């Protein structure tokens, strides 16, 4: 278990509030709390103008609280900086595997972003949220035939990952020969062989990866695609990983991809789109120092333009796919504190009413978080405790060595930066119902995900007659 003890002595939960002056531009991925976070006159944490303790009273806990201001600000910064620094056409896509639900897709789409989906379920959600199909891109390393047909019928772009998928698409074209089936719009995902310092499980750009065509097969892939009249190959895609702070790997990626564009032209493939993926990290702890959204976007735009100039190529439509850096900081999770266990000279456990079923990242990736007590924001941090979940699992530890004020049962604990890969990876482990989620803005809270009930838990169960 990785310790999450903050660097230095911290006085209270107020330290996590952003000290912003008028006119200050804040990059959401560089903050710990959502941009709208405030402390009210009762010393309680507010997000989106809503008292967190009141939200828990109204909607229960655990509770995902999504700040609309923070999410929209991140969308706008990506969208506007690409327009500012890139001379050609651009399109920002939200990597919705971070958190895919109707409301999130609708907010993102309303800011002009497209959606990156990785399954039929995510695609179905995006379509039903009103996202325009021409702004939806389907990824995945093992898409089923049914998922591919859904994508084709929807009119979205398919990012082809491997030979099997490419051949399946050709077979679909042949099966539907003579029908009104349009050319299938595809991009090709290639593995760039670029290393970056991130967790092994979320590093996708190195050669030893399950994702993408091997670059050594590039000529063969281009030759094959160029001979398929039913496929309309519009561009290339690559992605090097997630929670990345380094600038250089993304610059290297952009340069390599432009060279691939040049190679495609040898096979009369007129590729007009270049998708450089996402991966920009966020600030989970005080020591994290990710580039801002603007810094990352500017670097990508500049290197693509420089590489195209060097290769004498026209500027392609430039796409990127941020996920975590768009939504992680926009959300917190509120829990109710329960029992405590003091083991003298070893540690103090403080338990919450959730854990690994609503946030599996600590037990899966050894991820670290920060937390505050929402109803004691100004209280001094006098305790070092281990925050334990309620699941029947010794490893269900949310935060080890968390610095908190003295807590009591019924206090409301808020864990920051939970917008990415918390709800989307949530489970019913121990048959716990998954939490509710609310979208907060302008002192109003709207339910966007209902809390599951015990009836929901058994809804898909089937009891054979002979067992009744």
Automatic annotation (TrEMBL):
Coiled coil residues, start to end: none
Positions contributing to pyridoxal 5'-phosphate binding: 279, 321-324, 421
Biased composition (Polar residues): 11-29
Domain Orn/DAP/Arg decarboxylase 2 N-terminal, first and last residues per copy: 73-328
InterPro entries in the cross-refs: Ala_racemase/Decarboxylase_C (IPR009006), DAP_deCOOHase_LysA (IPR002986), De-COase2_CS (IPR022657), De-COase2_N (IPR022644), Orn/DAP/Arg_de-COase (IPR000183), PLP-binding_barrel (IPR029066)
CDD domains according to UniProt: PLPDE_III_DapDC
One GO BP: lysine biosynthetic process via diaminopimelate
Catalytic activity, reaction form: meso-2,6-diaminopimelate + H(+) = L-lysine + CO2
N6-(pyridoxal phosphate)lysine found at: 97
Annotated SUPFAM superfamilies: Alanine racemase C-terminal domain-like, PLP-binding barrel
EC number: 4.1.1.20
Pfam family, one: Orn_Arg_deC_N
Keywords: Amino-acid biosynthesis, Decarboxylase, Lyase, Lysine biosynthesis, Pyridoxal phosphate
Region entry Disordered, spans: 1-29
Signal peptide feature range: none
Gene3D superfamilies, sorted: Alanine racemase (3.20.20.10), Lyase, Ornithine Decarboxylase, Chain A, domain 1 (2.40.37.10)
Residues holding substrate: 324, 361, 365, 393, 421
Catalytic site: 392
PANTHER family: DIAMINOPIMELATE DECARBOXYLASE, GROUP IV DECARBOXYLASE
Protein task: Specifically catalyzes the decarboxylation of meso-diaminopimelate (meso-DAP) to L-lysine.
The protein, known as: Diaminopimelate decarboxylase
Name of the gene encoding the protein in the UniProt record: lysA
């Amino acid at each position: 278990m990785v310790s999450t003890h903050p660097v230095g002595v911290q006085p209270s939960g107020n330290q996590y509030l952003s000290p912003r002056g008028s006119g200050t531009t804040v990059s959401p991925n560089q903050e710990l709390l959502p941009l709208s976070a405030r402390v009210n006159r009762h010393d309680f944490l507010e997000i989106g103008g809503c008292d967190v303790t009141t939200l828990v009273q109204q909607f229960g806990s655990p509770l995902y609280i999504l700040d609309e201001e923070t999410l929209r600000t991140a969308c706008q910064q990506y969208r506007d900086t690409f327009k500012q620094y890139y001379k050609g056409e651009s399109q920002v896509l939200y990597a919705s595997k971070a958190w895919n639900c109707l409301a999130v897709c609708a907010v993102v789409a309303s800011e002009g972003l497209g959606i990156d989906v990785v399954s039929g379920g995510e695609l179905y959600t995006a379509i039903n949220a009103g996202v325009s199909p021409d702004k939806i891109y389907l990824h995945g390393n093992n898409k089923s035939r049914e998922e591919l047909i859904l994508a084709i019928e929807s009119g979205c772009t398919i990012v082809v990952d491997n030979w099997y998928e490419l051949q399946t698409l050709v077979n679909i074209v042949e099966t539907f020969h003579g029908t009104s089936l349009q050319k299938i719009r595809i991009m090709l995902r290639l593995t760039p062989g670029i290393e970056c310092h991130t967790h092994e499980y979320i590093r996708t750009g190195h050669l030893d990866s399950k994702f993408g065509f091997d670059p050594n097969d590039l000529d063969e892939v281009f030759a094959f695609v160029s001979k398929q009249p039913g496929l309309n190959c519009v561009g290339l895609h690559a992605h090097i990983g997630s929670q990345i702070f380094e600038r250089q790997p993304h610059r290297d990626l952009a340069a390599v991809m432009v060279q691939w564009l040049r190679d495609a032209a040898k096979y009369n493939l007129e590729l007009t789109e270049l998708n450089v993926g996402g991966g920009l990290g966020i600030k989970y702890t005080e020591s994290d120092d990710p580039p801002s959204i603007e810094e990352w976007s500017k670097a990508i735009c500049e290197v693509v333009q420089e590489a195209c100039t060097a290769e004498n190529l026209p500027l392609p439509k430039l796409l990127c796919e941020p996920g975590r850096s768009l939504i992680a900081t926009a959300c917190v999770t509120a829990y109710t504190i329960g029992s405590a266990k003091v083991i003298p000279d070893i540690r103090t456990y403080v338990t919450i009413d959730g854990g690994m079923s609503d946030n599996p990242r600590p037990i899966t990736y050894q991820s670290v978080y920060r937390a505050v007590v929402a109803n004691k924001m100004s209280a001094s941090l006098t305790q070092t405790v281990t925050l334990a979940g309620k699941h029947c699992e010794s490893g269900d530890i949310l935060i080890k060595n968390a610095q908190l004020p003295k807590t009591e049962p019924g206090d409301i604990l808020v864990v920051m930066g939970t917008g990415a890969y918390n709800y989307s990876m949530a489970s019913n482990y121990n048959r716990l119902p998954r939490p509710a989620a609310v979208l907060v803005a302008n002192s109003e809270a709207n339910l966007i995900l209902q809390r599951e009930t015990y009836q929901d838990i058994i809804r898909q169960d089937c009891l054979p007659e002979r067992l009744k």
